[in-house]
Amino acid sequence: xxxxxxxxxxxxxxxxxxxxxxxxxxxxxxxxxxxxxxxxxxxxxxxxxxxxxxxxxxxxxxxxxxxxxxxxxxxxxxxxxxxxxxxxxxxxxxxxxxxxxxxxxxxxxxxxxxxxxxxxxxxxxx
Length: 126
Fold this sequence. Notes:
Elements: E1 2-7, E2 10-13, E3 18-26, E4 33-39, E5 46-52, E6 58-60, E7 68-73, E8 78-83, E9 92-99, E10 115-116, E11 120-125
Parallel strand pairs: 2-11
Antiparallel strand pairs: 1-3, 3-8, 4-5, 4-9, 5-6, 7-8, 9-10, 9-11
C-alpha cells in the first residue's frame, strides 16, 4: 500500500493562495488515482479534486472549480493542490488520498480510496 504525507497548510487571508503537497512512498506502482478531500469541523469529509496517476486527467468539485488546480509528478511521486482565491468556507483539514482501482467514472467518494495522509490544516480568515 502507498503511504501519503501532506504538507503546505497554514493560515491565509481571504483571496490569498496556498499550495498543498502530497508525498507518496511505498507501493506507488499501479496506483490509479490521487485525490484531495477536506473536512471542516462538524461536517462530513468532502471531495475536492482528483487526478489519474498515469494520464493526469482531472476532475473538480463545483465549489473549487476555477480556483483550485490539482497536479502530479510521477517521477517525484508527489501530488499538489494549488489553491487560489481562497474563501473562509475553504477552511478545513485537507487530506490526500490514493487508490489502485480503475473506474470508468470519476472516483469522488471517500470510500473508493485505500490510502490516506494524516491531513493538513488550512485556515482562511475573512
